[in-house]
Amino acid sequence: MPPGHRPGLRHLWEILQEDLAAAHAHDPAARTRLEVALGYPGVHALWVHRLSHRMWHHPPLRLAARLLSQVARFVTGIEIHPGAVIGRRLFIDHGMGVVIGETAVIGSDCILFHGSTLGGRSMTRGKRHPTLGDRVMVGAGAKVLGPVTLGDDVQVGANAVVVKDVPAGAVALGVPAQVRMPRRPAAERDKHADPALLIEYMI
Questions:
Q1: What is the pLDDT of residues 12-53, one digit of tens each?
Q2: Residue 176 structural domain
Q3: What's the predicted TM-score (pTM) here?
Q4: For site-directed labelling of 142, which of 38, 194, 196, 198 has its Cα 20 to 30 A away?
Q5: Residue 120 CB neighbours (<10 A)
């Protein structure tokens, strides 16, 4: 979804349904969409964000949008600033401790695991959070900090700390993250692999 885009209610409903389907498809423990809709905090936080983000574009509603996002944080343990731009079919797995900053931009079909952060490195105004392309996976506990760009199909290993741009198709591992181009192309990788085991793509 491009920055500033405000879909109509029907379009928004379609996006919410896609969020639900994405969570059901990505989690092998999910038995039914009803179970996902009722019991998945990542879906709940994302749905609240879809609403608060719409509110954020109306200055008189910005305080309400912030308060709504804080309610979602309290209930789900996931903090998403209402100004963040999130594409379609994001899946937040488990979710506890996920933080997405105000100027973060996330493409479509991305996956964030618990404890991951899309944060800033400065207290200045303006663009200070990461931009993720499509089909990016950020592993558990990983930190992507500053106005860096992660290209399409990037995978960030668990607990990695990324402070520089990562080109499309690459894997980022370690602290600070070392960027590698795996031998296997992105299309051949297991999109559901444990992000702690991404080292296998280096061999």
A1: 778 888 888 888 888 888 888 888 888 899 999 999 999 999
A2: 9-202
A3: 0.84
A4: 38
A5: 18
